[in-house]
Amino acid sequence: MITSAVDELVAISPRPEPRSAAVTDPDAVVIGAGPNGLVAANRLADAGWSVVVLEANAVPGGAVRTAEVTAPGFRNDLFSAFFPFTAASPVMGDLDLPAHGLTWTHAPAVLAHPLAGRAAAMLSRELDATVAGLDQGADGDGEAFRRLFADWTAMSRPFLDALLRPFPPVRAGAALTRTVGLTGLRELTRLGLMPLRRFVQEHFVGDQAALLFAGCALHADLTPEASGSALFGWLLVCLGQQVGFPVPVGGAGAITDALVSRAAHGGVDVRCGVRVDRIHVRTDQHHGSAGYPLPPLLPVLCAIQYETRREVAARRVRDCTQVACAAGWGGSAPS
Ligand SMILES: Cc1cc2nc3c(=O)[nH]c(=O)nc-3n(C[C@H](O)[C@H](O)[C@H](O)COP(=O)(O)OP(=O)(O)OC[C@H]3O[C@@H](n4cnc5c(N)ncnc54)[C@H](O)[C@@H]3O)c2cc1C
């Protein structure tokens, strides 16, 4: 979603004149230095904008951080820990984070569920190995998986574009329709509504397959009976087969480090320890509703949790249409 907001901004606003002082005179403010805020800042900087990012925490990264919290020398991911969506994301791919220090690594297997006295359910990056493992659970499950994965491979590019590129996915949606046809679209819609338990019963017999798909669906806090669980389980298993479940060398925080480093390279000013507590909006060019002088109109992108965003928005000046400035930046806004 944040990429849609960025593209919209860049499209509707004239490309700003090149600025030398990103710090005192930004073209846009991004609130939140989680991955979404940092991606937004990078994309705006790529489009020639000077950007300030305001982050409430003492360090950037949001839920993508690594820190020494157990024993000296041991660094743990504090929240997110594996990144198939990041690895598959066309938007992240465009940022070329490996050029800014990010190195991916993989475990020997993508994931496994041990079973007492029987072969573990295992997702391997080698398709034949996954197929062979599923066949140990029930003859034919491997081939069923091979068919599902072949369907995924054929549609993955437009599907991921539709999911991860700016919304609404007009071009990607058209490409997806061309690839899978109307019947395929109907099947995808059905998958989107289906509970995982039903999906597994329709395709597989053995426990191994059920465990692979259910374990992945549970990552989205969806039970196997919940509508939508089939889609998420299917997507994560197929992505696991296609790109693995990569982790950054050095931990999740290495993604943040690379995003910050790339942003800094583009002149973005990331300021930590600055909590935005309100956004002033106004219609006229010169004065806020209370008569305070405000700086020139300034786009603000909120890359923060929905609840916080509502809290901040609830405190904004009501009768206005254009965002003017964010408290915490520059100190020009009335407190
Ligand atoms: C426990 C956990 C495990 C997860 N595991 C995975 C995983 O393994 N793989 C995966 O791909 N995804 C995982 N996710 C999801 C992933 O981390 C999020 O999708 C991602 O962090 C969202 O990025 P964001 O930038 O939108 O928000 P966030 O990462 O939440 O960043 C928002 C930032 O905005 C700042 N902020 C908030 N309010 C303000 C304010 N008023 N002023 C200034 N700054 C503010 C916050 O301090 C924060 O730094 C996990 C999430 C959690 C919580």
Describe the structure using short key phrases.
335 residues; alpha/beta; 12 helices; 12 strands; binds flavin-adenine dinucleotide
Written account of the structure:
This protein has helices spanning 2-12, 35-46, 84-88, 90-95, 127-137, 141-164, 170-193, 196-203, 207-218, 229-243, 253-265, 306-314; strands at residues 28-31, 51-55, 66-67, 76-77, 104-105, 111-115, 118-123, 247-248, 269-272, 279-282, 300-302, 322-326. It has 335 residues and is an alpha/beta fold. The strands form 5 sheets. It has a 4-stranded parallel β-sheet, with helices on one face. A two-stranded antiparallel sheet has the order 3-4. The two termini are 30 Å apart. Residues 17-23, 285-294 and 316-335 have low confidence and may be disordered. Residues 31-37, 54-57, 62-64, 79-83, 85, 275-276, 303-305, 308, 312 line the site of flavin-adenine dinucleotide (FAD).
